[in-house]
Structures
1.
Amino acid sequence: MKITGAKVIVCCPSRNFVTLKIETEAGIHGLGDATLNGRELAVVAFLEEYCIPALLGRDARQIEDVWHYFYRGVYWRRGAVSMAALSAIDLALWDIKGKALDTPVYNLLGGRSRDAVLVYAHATGDSLASAVESAARCAEAGYRAIRIQAAVPGLTDTYGVAKGKVPYEPAKRGLAVEERWDTARYLSFLPTLFAEARQQLGPDVHLLHDVHHRCTPIEAARLAKQLEPYHLWWLEDPVAGELQEGLRLIRQHSTTPIAIGEVFNTIYDYTTLITEQLIDFVRMPPAHGGGITHLMKVAALAGVYHVRTGFHGATDISPVGMAASLHVDVTINNFGIQEHMPHQEIVSEVFDVGYQFERGVMVLDERPGLGVEIDEEQAAKFPYRAAALPVNRLTDGTLWHW
Ligand code: EZ4
Ligand code: CO
């Protein structure tokens, strides 16, 4: 089944999405998510200039070989931009294979291992009390797992916290804004937030928190230890993950489960963390980590070491990328949880999806392939708008991790 065409569709229904559409001689097409928040057009250029010309004429059925052509076959391999492009190619080919065989992609990955996919919601607030109230509303809406982020007292901006009534969106229009950060204030505040949340929400709801790479290893160890009484489902990205050995320090001091790696992009970012059992959850999603093909291998390695998955599912993963995550989630034995940060209503004017939220879980229907379609005429009504993720400095001006 020869690939006869491929194109990139960029649209901005409330936020930017990059979608790869691959066409075949059989008349079947597939979609892949190539969205990389704040770096969208770099992936577009890489796909259009280098990948698409090399894709034309290849057999769309040979997913494994095409994957290696664009990974092993490339001298300048890995990296967020390249891997977002390769992920999109891989997703589109799995979509094509599912459609060609008239079955959902999960049936090609081993079939369902569960009826539905446990998801977690985002609760945020500009104070401790409003964050806990927000979490209570999530619980009322049926969520059984809730991530809580609250503004740190004394700081003007805190990542992950919505301002006013507008839903939280990490990238802001135009050039990157600069935020200020104070780890000492954060470390003294956070245990008080989770003490209150656990007390008000009771023992059954799963609580999560994202540190967003802000701590040093020993600071993260202190935090993980202090949060132990509130038994979190996980503490996410406690440190910037490029220093894999840093995670050893956290493990030595605490039993709080650790999730890491939404910014990772290959299995090699995880090998030390998984084989030394330094983490509990893999965050790298199919849309950024080499597609379904590569994530099935990462999940298999993780499973051997009793590490589970908890894929990144922020709004910067498009509906196509979200569907790819859900097909893996429903299939693998060592699934843990799936992040669910709903897209704004207007996104459904462009993307038609085959998954839906029902009382704490996401349910996938029986559509063939990934189960998502894009309306190109609608997409054209929402042209690209530049937006950037913030840059972060300590209160004295020192550049820090965002
Ligand atoms: O800040 O996806 O867990 N979720 C997150 C996200 C990230 C954005 C960056 O593009 O950390 O909200
Ligand atoms: Co995160």
Note: The chain has two domains: 3-104, 108-367.
2.
Amino acid sequence: MDTAKDTHQELLNRNNELLRQLEEANDTIEAIRSGQVDALIVRGEDGHRLYTLKTADQTYRVFIEKMNEGAVTLNRGGIILYSNSRFAAMMNLPLEKVIGLNFNTFIPEISASKFNEVIKRGWDEDFKSEILLANKNFQLTPCLVSCTTLDLDEGTALSLILTDLTSQKEAEWELKVKNEQLLAAQNAAEKLNNELEDTVRERTNDLLISREHFKLLANNIPQMTWTNLPGGEVDFYNQQWYNYTGRRYGETAGWGWQHVVHPDDLPHTMEKYISALKTGNIFEVENRYKKWDDTYRWHLNRAIPLRDDKGEIIFWVGTATDIEDQKKEMDRKDEFIGIASHELKTPLTSLKGYLQLITNYKKEDVPPVVKQYIEKASVAINKLQRLVNDLLDVSKIQAGRLEYAMGEVDLSNLIKLAIENAKHIYPLYDFDNQSTLGLRINGNAERLEQVLMNFVNNAVKYSQVNKQIILKTAVHDHVVRVSVTDFGIGLSEEQLDKIFERFYRVEDKKFMTSGLGMGLYISTEIINNHQGKIGVESELGVGATFYFELPLLS
Ligand code: ADP
């Protein structure tokens, strides 16, 4: 029991001693902080030692206290001789508890060996390194530690300045994450770029192939070809063009081609070209191009526009086909038709005369059957004469010799006569006269009647089921329109464009009708000579209205 008492008494004494020492330590720390002492004695393993702060003036202390970094001084054994409040705060301990502790207390196990190395080196030279510190709650703080030895009177101490790297590390981490994201984005962009480059390379290759393809094709067809921009400037010709014209690129590029078009054909060519560029419709025109030897040859020009996805024209592709030989062939045919129709006309006229004589022959009674034959022969001869007359007209038009005298014509009267005539020839048809009286124009009555009868003959020919035909006049702005309407087979859009051409006939096996495709061609020529206009409005299967327009005499 005594021993226990002693021990209790002993413990009390030691406790009092420790309390006293603690108070003393607190006083010392306070004294150091306030600058009252410049040195202190510390009891180490090898007895008491005196440490003096050589530059321990007030300014220095304040500076150390106020700075943002932790500052400690260690002795050789790693005991903390001095700490500023920032370090204590970093380690989450009251300042008085920090002093006297071994610095190892704040080194987590994972960085123990590194710290030992740092300290070892720090005693030899000024040295900086990153280390991890741990507080009593095992919270880790990354720090940059700068070691410097301090020569104190009582020996050398190691000063550590500890910079909390937490926010810097966080920033670094964020930066790292951002960098990684950036890198990922860069990689993605690079990949995309590579893919794009591949596509561009492929497309360029495709384009090159298709351009070569086009060139190969263009240079191996017999026609001359070109491409032109939406504005009209030509930017490509094939080899045949250069071979034919004997010109260099610069001479006919852009609008330079106009110099090789025959001057007589240029206005018409330009009109069609500009109109095609404006409307985007197919360009088609016949003209003569000057060859390298200064001779001209007829060509048929055609150009179609190439459009993008939005329908905008990118460029035009055109061809010029040499039709000189066909033209000559056509001329020879015209010449032949001219001669043939002329040659036919003489015997036809005498045949008609003899028939007339036979008809009028009254001396003896002609048997009725012979009379019938004579009538049939007359009909056939009239038809033949109409055909020969048409052929003659065509060859006259070709030779530019379709001439006739002009005078005042009463159109209303003309229509009336034409209807009477038509009723006589086509008694099964119903002709509806919707014309007004007193319409006078300047023209050739015979030729205008020819046009009107051509309309009527066609109306009958192409409306075998519905037998109603309307002849009508309409006046607008001192211009009279004379029209013939039927309710027959009508015409398609495509046919409408062509029926006024020479020898054009709609090829339709269903409607085997006689005719050589001359009527409308001659009519057009006649109306053009009258400074009038000829036209048609029609719908396939519904019917057709053919008309001409002439200026009225006031
Ligand atoms: P054709 O002597 O062959 O009738 P045209 O020059 O008078 O020659 O007419 C040319 C073509 O126009 C005809 O072959 C025919 O196909 C078409 N055509 C003319 N008139 C009509 C009409 N009223 N209805 C339908 N087609 C017509």
Note: The mean pLDDT is 86.
